[in-house]
Design the sequence.
């Protein structure tokens, strides 16, 4: 890094292991200075859902009933006969929501063997995690540490991470190494016109999406909404303003437009609050104290 060509951040992508024991995953989090609770216990219903995907060859598995303790699934055989699909109910199984116990409600050794296999697979899935689980944990890490993973392609997989969050990248590199995966990074520096434009566009799209998500949460407010819900929206709005201030140097010509979007979101939240308080209540000011920035700001 030089004074004339400072780093904006990095393009980050990662490769996770295809499968990893749950205990190893938690140990990797701890050794990388993250909370092991980021890797949560898997509920029996979710483990059964994964098992069902493996059991669904030549059969359809659908939930038919649910009460406070159990979920019932119907197993239906499917086969092609004379260019026509045929279906026949095979059996019904229940899964206990807390204990994960699988019980087949139909007699017959074949059905009981199928239930035993489903039970074995359910327990196996509770004790392991896959690539998508690890990616969700990485995304959760960035959320909890107020970091930003800015997608640079529509289908994800590669992200821009501002220089202010490079410590997170270092710890995630250690985390993935401990699980058998790895992180690839490519430094992005100020000065290249095409790179500057690409980063600005990706950043603007990212923050615009955050504003849209915020507005959708505001739509859910009504006169019966609890005070803490309104407080949370106001906090989220302040976080959006903070991002604008922090990244204005990266946003370039898009900064003013993003500021207007945040201001519009503020107005929508204000209108929601006025409606919840009653039309005669005097609520006329911004829901946050900080104005949308207009001047140049150094990136954090």
Sequence:
């Amino acid at each position: 890094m030089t004074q004339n060509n400072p780093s904006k951040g990095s393009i980050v992508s990662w490769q996770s292991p295809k499968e990893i024991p749950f205990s190893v995953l938690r140990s990797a989090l701890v050794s990388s200075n993250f909370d092991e609770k980021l890797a949560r216990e898997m509920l029996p219903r979710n483990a059964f859902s994964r098992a069902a995907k493996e059991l669904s060859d030549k059969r359809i598995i659908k939930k038919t009933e649910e009460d406070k303790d159990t979920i019932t699934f119907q197993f239906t055989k499917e086969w092609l006969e004379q260019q026509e699909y045929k279906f026949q109910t095979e059996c019904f199984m229940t899964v206990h929501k807390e204990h994960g116990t699988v019980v087949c409600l139909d007699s017959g050794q074949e059905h009981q063997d199928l239930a035993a296999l489903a039970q074995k697979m359910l327990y196996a899935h509770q004790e392991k995690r896959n690539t998508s689980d690890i990616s969700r944990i990485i995304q959760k890490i960035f959320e909890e540490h107020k970091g930003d993973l800015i997608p640079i392609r529509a289908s994800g997989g590669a992200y821009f991470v501002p220089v202010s969050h490079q410590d997170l990248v270092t710890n995630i590199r250690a985390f993935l190494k401990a699980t058998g995966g790895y992180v690839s990074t490519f430094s992005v520096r100020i000065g290249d016109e095409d790179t500057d434009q690409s980063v600005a566009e990706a950043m603007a799209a990212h923050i615009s999406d955050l504003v849209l998500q915020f507005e959708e949460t505001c739509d859910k407010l009504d006169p019966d909404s609890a005070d803490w819900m309104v407080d949370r929206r106001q906090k989220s709005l302040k976080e959006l303003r903070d991002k604008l201030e922090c990244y204005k140097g990266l946003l370039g010509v898009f900064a003013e437009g993003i500021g207007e979007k945040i201001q519009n979101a503020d107005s929508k939240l204000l209108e929601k609050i006025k409606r919840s308080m009653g039309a005669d209540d005097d609520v006329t000011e911004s829901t946050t104290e900080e104005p949308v920035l207009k001047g140049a700001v150094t990136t954090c």
